[in-house]
Amino acid sequence: MLITPNFSVSEMACSCCQKAEMDDEFMRMLQELRNVAGFPFRINSGFRCLKHNAAVSSYKKSKAGIHTFGKACDISVMSISTTQTLHLIKQAQDIGFTGLGLKLNGDRKGRFLHVDNRGDDFSPPAVWTY
Ligand SMILES: [Zn+2]
Ligand SMILES: [Zn+2]
What we know:
Distance between the termini: 32 Å
Number of strands: 7
Low-confidence stretches: none
CATH topology: Muramoyl-pentapeptide Carboxypeptidase, domain 2
CATH architecture: 2-Layer Sandwich
Strand order of the largest sheet: 3-4-6-5-7
CATH class: Alpha Beta
Order of helices and strands: EEHHEHEHEEE
Helix content: 25-40%
Oligomer: single chain
Mean pLDDT: 94
Bound molecules: zinc ion
Largest sheet: 5 strands, mixed
């Protein structure tokens, strides 16, 4: 089952409970990013329930992370170049993503670009590395 032309429920679903309560506007923006990027995305993590998020998140603050709101996903950059990755960040900013996190160190399989559309009620726009 597809959420948008290029993204299925199963690839956005929480890996522990298969819930995929994704935000409509986030998915619209993700599809737009996919369209301008022009290559397939491999999603490392989309929706996360509170329990799963607590188990995997590096976000140590007391409030729930943005993945639990269905407003975030981690796009694998394992098989794209650093230049392409930086280009993707620019394209994501142009589309209006307000949270961008980049993991470019460690095992290639674990490298990803986190994108989210957090609102000011969550936090001001943020860019970070892992
Ligand atoms: Zn879960
Ligand atoms: Zn993330």
